[in-house]
Amino acid sequence: MTDTVLISVRLPQPIAEAAKAAAEAQKTSRSNLVRIALEHFLDGVAGASELDRRRQFSLEYLFLALDLIIQRQYADVHGELLAEAEARMEALCGAA
């Protein structure tokens, strides 16, 4: 078993409440939720793996190819699709 270290962290109330709700939804402890979140953050700081870079490239290529096809073959709806995507991003993330 891996040795663990206790680290106390102070969080703003809204973040603490969101963490509690997320932990309950995932059926895990807040401690485990924070551990997982920190692992994901540290992975991102360390840089993406080769597999992550390949996936990102593939997604970008797919999005660009689809956008080009829509621009050329369905130019009449291209602006409408972009506006809808923008609206959905704003609703999902709070800002685009």
TrEMBL record:
SUPFAM superfamilies: Ribbon-helix-helix (SSF47598). This is Ribbon-helix-helix protein CopG domain-containing protein. It comes from the Bacteria. InterPro entries: CopG, Ribbon_hlx_hlx. Residues 6-43 form the Ribbon-helix-helix protein CopG domain.
